[in-house]
Amino acid sequence: MDSARPTFRDGSIVWATHAATGKAAPHLFRQTTRHEVAVASISARYICHGWTWQRDREPASKLDHMTDGVAVRGDEIELVEVELTPKVLGRYVQIFNNHTSRLEREGVGRVVYFCDAATERAVRRIADQRVHHTGRHKVLTLAAFDVRGKWIGDDSRMWLDGSPVDPTATSVPAELDGLNEGMSR
What we know:
alpha/beta; two-stranded antiparallel sheet; 185 residues; 7 strands
């Protein structure tokens, strides 16, 4: 095992060494690492609430989209996205066309975006424009991270009944208290 304490995190990040995995150490100051740590935090939250977590299927074409993860619990399927920086409009058009298709044809019940506050506003605005009003309630956007990728959101209501979460709330449910810190040590 190896570790480092990058400036964008409050704790350390630990990873398996090259000798153990054959893979190079992560470049800790790239956007990709910050994103991967955030996805790991979200997947742990889903697992703590009884869901299974898996990688999404490989895209079938350039117009297809691979989400950051798929959460499954019984017959429920949620596509999960972590957005820490907004994408260009044209890319969101493709992504939301894909989300809409999967909601209608693949048994997906909901698409959930976990973002920082500024990115959440951008994603919500695009969802309002791109998702038909009859299915808009199936695309949830949450301001759950700060600009450094640290968890600050309150997702407790999400697990109870699927209702939208107050994006200004900052408390973490008791069963998840310390999860973000524990994952970044």
